[in-house]
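Q: Given only this backbone (186 positions), what sequence would you predict?
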């Protein structure tokens, strides 16, 4: 499943961004459509985008941005995780299926599932957390399918936009006991 820098899933390849991905990365970053109703565009410019892609800033054990690609049809989004600086055993994830036509096909769930396996088995995470806007039913459905539990409802800041959201968590015991992570039907 994990070969070198990539995470392979039944239908997806998740890999490090390279310089050739810069135009797409910048265009998604500045697009309301790519972010959907419940995420605010981070509006990265080309200079900063090149810096992010070419430096090690987004490709370290404690912080990685993956490009999500369909194995047979190219990029559809990004998946980011970081380890909490104050609690490194806890990973936080953020996902974006940027092409709206590719949503609701199971790719968001599949991408998150295999990153979660990587985080618990390779990174030895003890918990994985996700924030989601309170109205983001689609992401909350993904998290339910993946075995997350609602931890708390809180106000958070999403690139200067105030949101009310849920914080979800899965811990290592739930991960090990959940059949989703042992059987792969996709
Ligand atoms: C949220 C997101 C990651 C989900 O990925 P996806 O590939 O569309 O999700 P999946 O197809 O794996 O699963 C979506 C589930 O939500 C369900 N769903 C979709 N819209 C829904 C709605 N309005 N209400 C309830 N359920 C809904 C789907 O039926 C599906 O569940 P099912 O498999 O039981 O039928 C994706 O839509 C996305 O990137 N959106 C824009 C950015 C974003 O919101 N990111 C998440 C930030 S926390």
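A: Predicted residues:
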């Amino acid at each position: 499943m994990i070969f070198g820098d990539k995470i392979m899933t039944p239908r997806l390849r998740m890999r490090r961004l390279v310089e050739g991905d810069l135009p797409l990365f910048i265009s998604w970053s500045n697009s309301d459509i790519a972010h959907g109703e419940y995420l605010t565009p981070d509006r990265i410019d080309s200079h900063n985008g090149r810096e992010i892609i070419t430096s090690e800033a987004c490709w370290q054990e404690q912080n990685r941005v993956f490009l999500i690609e369909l194995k047979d049809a190219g990029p559809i989004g990004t998946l980011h995780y970081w380890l909490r600086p104050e609690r490194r055993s806890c990973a936080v994830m953020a996902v974006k299926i940027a092409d709206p036509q590719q949503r609701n096909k199971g790719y968001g769930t599949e991408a998150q599932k295999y990153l979660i396996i990587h985080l618990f088995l390779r990174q030895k995470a003890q918990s994985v957390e996700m924030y989601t806007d309170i109205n983001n039913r689609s992401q909350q459905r993904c998290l339910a399918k993946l075995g997350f539990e609602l931890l708390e409802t809180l106000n958070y800041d999403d690139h200067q936009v105030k949101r009310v959201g849920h914080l979800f968590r899965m811990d290592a015991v739930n991960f090990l006991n959940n059949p989703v992570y042992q059987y792969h039907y996709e």
